[in-house]
Design a protein that fits this description.
Helices cover 35% and strands 23% of the residues. By secondary structure, the protein is an alpha+beta fold. It folds into two domains: 106 residues, no CATH class; 59 residues, no CATH class. The longest helix has 28 residues.
Length: 185
């Protein structure tokens, strides 16, 4: 699924994914939050069935409110090829929204892990709008990074952006844009 329903009232916390058990769907457990309060436990066994959402003790009324809120959201448009070229629309439900949130969180975690591996092991930089790295040079092995980066810049015929010099979130956004081909948001 390429897009996630945009809203900020329902979120997940304590997401645990079992990739090895995920077959048809993502196998996970998570705590469902509604307006910042834990209201339910969600789980999916990863075999293509539904996600089960069970109210935490004393939270049944809030779970019902969350379900009503989820139903009020616009239908999700799935990117599925159809003969009539019309998008496949699915009415929003709480369990479907929880699936979307779990998928998005898991994908983001996997991307973040790949980024952390790259940023820790490579001297990554942007030159001519392309993400490049120095082959055979480990970032962790550079003792005086400031001097090394200054020397690297001096050898370039045009300005470069070295990702290790940027705040982590900014470096991640740039890396993600180049790796996934995403447009900046």
């Amino acid at each position: 699924m390429d897009t996630i329903t945009r809203q900020d009232r329902i979120t997940l916390k304590n997401l645990k994914v079992a990739d090895f058990a995920s077959e048809e769907t993502l196998c996970f457990t998570a705590t469902v939050m509604f307006d910042g309060r834990p209201i339910a436990e969600a789980r999916n066994d990863g075999h293509g069935g539904s996600t089960f959402v069970r109210a935490l003790q004393g939270q049944a009324a809030l779970l019902a409110q969350a379900e009503e809120f989820a139903k009020s959201l616009p239908p999700a448009s799935l990117d599925v090829e159809r003969e009539d070229d019309e998008p496949l629309l699915i009415d929003m439900t709480l369990d479907f929204l929880v699936d979307q949130l779990a998928d998005a969180m898991h994908a983001e975690r996997k991307l973040r892990t790949a980024f952390n591996r790259d940023i820790g092991n490579k001297v990554l930089f942007i030159k001519d709008g392309r993400l490049l790295f120095l082959k055979g040079i480990k970032l962790k092995a550079i003792a005086d990074r400031a001097a090394y980066f200054a020397k690297l810049r001096s050898r370039q015929d045009q300005p470069i952006v070295i990702l290790a010099e940027l705040p982590a979130d900014e470096a991640f956004a740039i890396w993600k844009q180049h790796v996934l081909g995403d447009k900046p948001r």
